[in-house]
């Protein structure tokens, strides 16, 4: 028998140390994780056998067996599920968090408490065995294959894979043998194993047997939790099923359990997590809801069962109407699946709207929105049919909310007389947005402005366009329209004579040339001397930057409008200079410095850093000499 030694992926020794010593507050949950994996293996074979009955052979009854051996100090978890080939052993057990491992490792901080929550969100259930075991052996034979394989590791950075002798390996499925640590002897006691199974895994639909003999005792209810009446299910059982089906380590934020009868019949048991799943923003945008047909697992990748903007959901949907032999390909165009999707979305949105409109749950809903609001916003531009309900859920931070989340209805109720639009500003950071010069005029008049900081915001705003007759309008685009709004009137300040101001505007246009689209007087500035804005027909500035970062801006950046604040002392002085002395040598440098200043405030790079530095030095020198 040839044995091959391989290294774990990346910094697995570091991760295993965290898992073994910090991940769980109660070590006993290692058994929950291994039983959950065994149950999944049985589900997958049950589905595969629908099209290839030979895979079951003469062993059609699925089961999970727990075998404690006090003499050898081993605990074995044994299932007759689908099993693993050599390559699958290497891939599944040699890699921690194999989807997006690089990003996962980069997120680890070295602080055990912080890293625990990240690992918990990502899911590393098998490795919890090393909390109680100093060495783990895995014997596995994939259904339909003759050769069995053995995987072994002490969890310290490497593992071995070799062919397994027939007498050591199961005829089908996987046998995990844990050589327990000295302080883990309690997990060899039958009463302790019964207690753990009853606490964490009673909902598992596969019988869990304790002992070697064929008449071994079944220690779980072995019935699908979602098929039981809600009145018979405890909160603790719901929570443990969430841990099983969602592979999460947090508690569910919301539990939805219902049975639909009528045109189609199905049962749903869905959960909204409390914490963001680690792969929430994976580009594939896949959901993780398992589809069953009459208690038989079909797939957890049924495209179209749940919209991508609800991909944070975890749980199961069990249909009575789909055929048992349905394939994943057939599901894509199945009308029953479309009805299931419609029913799921209606139920989930209905319950979320109730939570959103409950004043007593405002803080709780804000926690949910911070975690999953960016994903729900995708539905605002992707799913017109559910846009109204999603707008009821929408929460935003504004210039008037002091950091709190508020609804659009609240913003609508606080609009000023004469205000014809809901104003917003988009960017990457709320603190930076609140300091933006484009907000000065709105803040002076007491006009509330939405502060949008998620990348998706630019897209849903452009798609929705209006809310209850009030258009969404960016404060960084077009005219400010502040003169029409009856709000708090800012303090009146002197402005330069019309002739002086016109001379400065004309000089700046001539000097800056094609670097700007126009130079004009600003209605929106009250404190800053200058700002840049987009023309009405152009892309919003933040959206253009986003598209440019992803190389989606074909025609290149648009030219911006440079706005000057006529009440600012600097602009007054420059206006007087332009009118009285014409093209004074320092005025050209001033025009370029105003443009560079506006770009810097927007977070953009100046077009020519060397020229900017030279102009600034010259300007300061002249100022000091005067």
UniProtKB/TrEMBL annotation:
Homodimer. SUPFAM superfamilies: ATPase domain of HSP90 chaperone/DNA topoisomerase II/histidine kinase, HSP90 C-terminal domain, Ribosomal protein S5 domain 2-like. The keyword ATP-binding applies. Residues 546-626 are annotated as: C. Residues 1-328 are annotated as: A. InterPro entries: HATPase_C_sf (IPR036890), HATPase_dom (IPR003594), HSP90_C (IPR037196), Hsp90_fam (IPR001404), Hsp90_N (IPR020575), Ribosomal_Su5_D2-typ_SF (IPR020568). It comes from Aerophototrophica crusticola. GO terms for cellular component: cytoplasm. GO terms for molecular function: ATP binding; ATP hydrolysis activity; ATP-dependent protein folding chaperone; unfolded protein binding. Its main location: cytoplasm. This is Chaperone protein HtpG. Belongs to the heat shock protein 90 family. ATP binds at residues 33, 37, 79, 84, 92, 99-100, 121-126, 174, 328. Molecular chaperone. Has ATPase activity. Coiled coil: none annotated. It is found in: Cytoplasm. Residues 26-184 form the Histidine kinase/HSP90-like ATPase domain. Keywords: ATP-binding, Chaperone, Cytoplasm, Nucleotide-binding, Stress response.
């Amino acid at each position: 028998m040839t044995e091959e030694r391989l290294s774990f992926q990346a910094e697995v020794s570091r991760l295993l140390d965290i898992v073994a010593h910090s991940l769980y507050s109660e070590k006993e949950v290692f058994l929950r994780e291994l039983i959950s994996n065994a149950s999944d293996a049985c589900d997958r074979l049950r589905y595969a056998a629908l099209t290839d009955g030979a895979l079951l052979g003469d062993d059609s009854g699925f089961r999970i067996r727990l075998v404690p051996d006090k003499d050898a100090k081993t605990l074995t978890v044994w299932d007759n599920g689908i099993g693993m080939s050599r390559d699958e052993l290497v891939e599944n057990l040699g890699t921690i968090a194999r989807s997006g491992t690089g990003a996962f490792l980069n997120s680890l901080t070295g602080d055990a408490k912080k890293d625990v929550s990240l690992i918990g969100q990502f899911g590393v259930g098998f490795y919890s065995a090393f909390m109680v075991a100093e060495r783990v052996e895995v014997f596995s034979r994939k259904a339909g294959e003759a050769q069995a394989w053995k995987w072994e590791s002490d969890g310290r950075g490497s593992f071995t894979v070799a062919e397994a002798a027939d007498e050591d390996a199961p005829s089908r499925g996987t046998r995990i043998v844990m050589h327990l640590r000295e302080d883990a002897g309690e997990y060899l006691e039958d009463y302790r194993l019964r207690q753990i199974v009853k606490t964490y895994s009673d909902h598992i639909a596969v019988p869990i047997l304790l002992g070697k003999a064929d008449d071994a005792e079944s220690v779980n209810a072995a019935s699908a939790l979602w098929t039981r009446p809600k009145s018979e299910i405890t909160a603790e059982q719901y929570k443990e099923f969430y841990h099983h089906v969602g592979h999460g380590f947090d508690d569910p934020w919301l539990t939805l359990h219902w049975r639909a009868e009528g045109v189609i019949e199905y049962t749903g048991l869905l959960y909204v997590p409390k914490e963001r799943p680690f792969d929430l923003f994976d580009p594939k945008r896949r959901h993780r809801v398992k589809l069953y047909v009459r208690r038989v697992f079909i797939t957890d990748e049924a495209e179209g069962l749940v919209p991508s903007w609800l991909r944070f959901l975890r749980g199961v949907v069990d249909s009575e109407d789909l055929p048992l032999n349905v394939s994943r390909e057939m599901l894509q165009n199945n009308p029953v699946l479309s009805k299931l999707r419609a029913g799921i979305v209606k139920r989930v949105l209905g319950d979320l709207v109730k939570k959103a409109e409950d004043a007593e749950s405002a803080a709780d809903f804000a926690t949910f929105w911070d975690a999953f609001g960016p994903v729900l916003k995708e539905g605002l531009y992707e799913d017109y049919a559910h846009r109204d309900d999603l707008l009821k859920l929408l929460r935003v931070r504004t210039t008037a909310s002091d950091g709190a989340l508020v609804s659009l209805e609240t913003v609508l109720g606080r609009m000023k007389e004469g205000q014809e639009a809901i104003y917003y500003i988009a960017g990457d950071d709320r603190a930076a947005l609140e300091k933006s010069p484009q907000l000065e005029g709105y803040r002076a008049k007491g006009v509330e402005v939405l502060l949008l900081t998620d990348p998706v915001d630019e897209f849903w705003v452009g798609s929705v366009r209006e809310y209850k007759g009030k258009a969404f309008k960016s404060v960084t685009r077009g005219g400010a329209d502040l003169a029409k709004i009856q709000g708090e009137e800012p303090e009146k300040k002197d402005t330069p004579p019309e002739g002086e101001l016109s001379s400065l505007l004309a000089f700046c246009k001539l000097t800056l040339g094609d670097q700007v689209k126009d130079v004009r007087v600003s209605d929106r500035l009250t404190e800053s001397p200058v700002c840049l804005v987009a023309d009405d027909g152009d892309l919003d500035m933040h959206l253009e930057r986003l598209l440019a970062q992803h190389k989606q801006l074909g025609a290149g950046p648009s030219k911006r409008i440079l706005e000057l604040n006529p009440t600012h002392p600097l602009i007054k002085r420059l206006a007087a200079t332009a009118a009285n002395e014409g093209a004074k040598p320092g005025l050209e440098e001033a025009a370029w410095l105003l443009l560079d200043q506006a770009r810097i405030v927007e977070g953009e790079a100046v077009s020519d850093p060397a020229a900017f530095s030279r102009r600034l030095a010259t300007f300061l020198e002249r100022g000091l000499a005067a």
